[in-house]
Specification:
This protein has 478 residues and is α+β, with helices and mostly antiparallel strands. It has 13 helices and 18 strands. The chain is globular and about 80 Å long.
Amino acid sequence: MSPSLAVSFKITRMTETALPHPLLAQLREAVHGGMPAAISDLGGLVRIPSVSWDGFDAERVFDSAKAVEALLAATGVFDSIEIARAAIDDERLGQPAVLATRAAKNGKPTILLYAHHDVQPPGDEADWESNPFEPTVRGDRLYGRGAADDKAGVMAHVAAIRAFVETVGLDFDLGLVAFIEGEEEFGSRSFADFIVKHRDQLMADVIVVADSDNWDTQTPALTVALRGNVTFKLKVSTLDHASHSGMFGGAAPDAMLAAIRLLATLHGPDGSVAVAGLTSRSAPTPAYDEAKLAEEAAFLDGVTAIGHGPVLSRLWDQPAITITGIDAPTVMNASNTLVPSVTVKVSARIAPGQSAADAYDALERHLRAHAPFGAHLEISDLDRGNPFLVDTSGWAVAEAKDAMHQAWGRAPLETGIGGSIPFIADLVEVFPNAQILITGVEDPDSRAHSPNESLHLGVFQRAILTEAVLLAKLESRA
């Protein structure tokens, strides 16, 4: 998308209640009646530890795909359903995705519903208040890995279809495609090949990507801007082997020292990114102060924010660099030696308007130019995903916002998110005429990717109703 595309970030409050869809009351009743089944089925998916990363049991991802296939088949609406894989490269296949299709009739549009059934690793289970793969309701939230990201997105699609069919019956004309990916949390590495391979089956007028969040538990949001990402492993080496720190420390540079010095150059004194060539974008943002940031990001007492400019500009429109992992001797296994090499995982978020390729070039130039003491650098396991800006002028955006207004009782915000969904750029390239809607079931307390990930059940119900209303609106559209 062009970096000059105008995107408005504002609360679009309507002065009057949106004109109710004729089927709104029936859809609301169907969604409400279907909530126990939706929560139960979501719990069944959460129990499957479908971590798509290398080193985890790939069979559990297949188990998850088969469970999703069964849920879609049980709706009774699809002409075909399959579990399919695509190539990552010449030697590897990606994780299994579920693809279900129903052809449109009588000139009606086709809507593609996307979500992913794979999840992040749970991390240290000691940090969880309950078993990450045992769905647990506490208060108005369902806890578990994938309960929000993104098995709730899968179930929002399934439950919306159920409510739609209960209301209008099985003999409808709207075209439906469900595409439930199996490796989004591992970088969607086979995604580009998959959508080319299945291009005809995936062809749609509207694509709903249910993998984002809402402003809060009472206010819906339509995501219209996404940062891109560049991630890679960086190995910093200074010695051919470990040496005694007492004999050589103070003269021989160890890799830990070199890595610390190098990584410190990535940020300025205020914590903002200091890499030449990484760009920012200027756009208005809703009000959001540092006190709210501290609350939602769980700052410890006395910790202050980093960066400059409006908070949401830092999160949506400026680059960010995080070191998300490090391979080095553990404290328990530390010996009095100079470490010869250290490997870190670098995760950079790229502002809309810059390509991931250009951003990576800037990062590599910076690292090689700032390597201290002649340290050797090795970069591997590179992933890149481009940023994205939604064209908000299409009719599908208006329909989706109206559906949100009816389901939530509040007009939605158009927002950006600091996270990335890199495959959307692939969708735009292969399906340039499709209108893309980025929705979701998360809220600021969902803690996606973190311990104690959870789903607000009220948000879940309203998200299902939103999609059911959208399906009904598209069914009545020429």
